[in-house]
Amino acid sequence: MKNILIATIASFVLLSCSASSEPEQPIVTPPANLESLQTAYFASGCFWCVEAIFESVNGVEEAVSGYAGGTSKNPTYMEVSAGRTNHAETVKVYYDSSVVKFETLVDVFFNSHDPTTLNQQGPDRGPQYRSIAFYQTPEERRIIETKIEELLIDGVFSKITTQVVAHDTFWEAEGYHQDYERNNPGNGYVQNVSIPRLNKFKRKMPEVLK
């Protein structure tokens, strides 16, 4: 029984977002010509998964992994993954609003994770994996809150733990986290968590894909 318990714990650790800390493939530098695009910020679990999901959406030019919602400056992955900074793993989405609207990005957010689990997404647990929809304007806040109300009224979810938070500061994550799913297709977490999560989203919203 003890050996089974140890094996179960080991499996959980290996399949958590914080288990991998070194790059397995060359890092791809994001394109620099993003200044003309709009931005949005979402946290919904491991940023490796969230980044890949948003980058699959038509009109999204780039998604960058990072940290937001905390209090300390210049947080590191080790600090955030240990839950010491109150930051959440967050993705900064660069998008062309003439192609995809903020409302659609909010739909993508709610259709690509479980907003009912507090401080948890799949095997990843802790406040760094909590669900947050950040807003930068009163209109964005209205859109997010209206969507939450609709989901509850329609019975899609019985409860929603997503925080609706004014965006403050986004700290870009270390280089090896960027495009992690794309650069590390053989990683155990990517194979067993990230890719299935991405494919599940694609089945739910095929109309928004590139």
Characterise this structure.
- The chain has 210 residues and is an alpha+beta fold.
- The chain has a single domain (34-208), classed as 2-Layer Sandwich (Peptide Methionine Sulfoxide Reductase, Chain A), CATH 3.30.1060.
- The protein has seven helices and eight strands; from the N terminus they run H-E-H-E-H-E-H-E-E-E-H-E-E-H-H.
- The strands form two sheets. A six-stranded mixed sheet has the order 7-6-1-3-2-8, covered by helices on one side. A two-stranded antiparallel sheet has the order 4-5.
- Helix 5 links the parallel strand 6 (131-135) and strand 7.
- Helix 4 (102-111) packs across helix 5.
- The model is unreliable at 1-13 and 23-28 (pLDDT under 50).
Helix content: 25-40%
Mean pLDDT: 90
The CATH homologous superfamily: Peptide methionine sulphoxide reductase MsrA
Strand content: 15-25%
Tell me the overall shape.
globular
Q: Supply the number of helical segments.
A: 7
What is the CATH class name?
Alpha Beta
Strand order of the largest sheet: 7-6-1-3-2-8
Largest beta sheet, briefly? Answer: 6 strands, mixed
CATH topology: Peptide Methionine Sulfoxide Reductase, Chain A
In the CATH classification, which architecture applies? Answer: 2-Layer Sandwich
Q: Which structural category fits the helices and strands?
A: alpha+beta
Gyration radius (Cα, Å) is 17 Å
Care to count the β-strands?
8
The rounded distance between the terminal residues' Cα atoms is: 48 Å
How many domains? The number is 1
Spans where pLDDT lies below 50 across 5 or more residues: 1-13, 23-28
